[in-house]
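Suppose a colleague, Dr. K., hands you the sequence of a protein chain of 356 amino acids and asks what its three-dimensional shape might be. Before reaching for any lab equipment, you can write down a predicted structure in token form. Begin with the sequence itself:
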Amino acid sequence: MLRIGSIDLALPVVQAALSGYSDWPMRALARQMGAPYTIHEVLIEAFVNHLKDRERTRRFLHVAEADHPAGAQLMGSDPAEFGLAALRLVRAGFDVIDINFGCPMKKLRGQCRGGLHLGQPELALQIVRRVREVLPPRIPLTVKMRRGLDDTAESRDRFFHILEGAFAAGIAAATIHARTVEQKYVGPSRWEFLREVRQAFPQRTLLGSGDLFTAADCVRMLRETGVDGVTAARGSIGNPWIFRQAAALLEGAPLPTAPSVFEQRDVMREHLRLARTVYPPGQAFRQLRKFGIRYAAWHPDDVQVRAAFVGVATPADWDQVFRTWYAADRPGQYPRSFTAAAEVADAPSSPASLHN
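The predicted structure, expressed as tokens, is then:
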């Protein structure tokens, strides 16, 4: 059981916010496939505040009944804008507001956003306090952080100052990505840092992030670091099965077999169906091309299927790929890079044992 404020989640593996990916269709599909909680792709506070009710942008505030609980992630630089945007997202139906202090982006028009706030603790905490102040008490506030701007002692001190201040200001949980802002996505994620944070905040709700490409990785992070939960990010793209797989491992069951070719086809068709309900005509097929490339890794002819998905853009293109590569059912395969990490024969019997 994972608890975020007053929200209880039956599985400690949740769908992370992913820029350009975790739109409503991806999140709705993740929920169908066992994710207990999903977070919308990051939104800039000013964008939310100036968003018009138009067909091509309405999806950003879309929350369906089956989505709950759902989180919305905000990034920006102005505490006042943050507060207004958070309220608008709550009115739209989101159950949790998450502040992004983790995105490794550069300054925009001289303003710091995302992970750059880790270099200015007072403004970061001003943002947290402002959002917590305006949110209804029932709405949990969380933050997403990296372990610092870099690996200097000063950066480490600022990280712990911000995290301690954020908990004092009333956040319900923090997600820690164990890379620095300077690293971006290069090099390994230092999971030992998550153990240090766990020791420093033993009574707080902490989630881990970084190098979670398989269900086995999710279980291993829980066991090795003692965090309360993990956020499946890049490892969930084209892999909505990761939540069911993690649930099986946490119950002590073997890793499920890879989805068959027909199972893959059916999930992709559902993903397309969901996308077509919120994207303007034609855009859904282009948007899902990058997902198709990732779904291809599960196919026994992964290299050829991936090449086929590279060129899809229209309904006819998708139909052609399905007719050519998904017309006959065959056993699927775990993506080649996942195979070694998937060997978790000694998975714990329950989430409660992960902190022992």
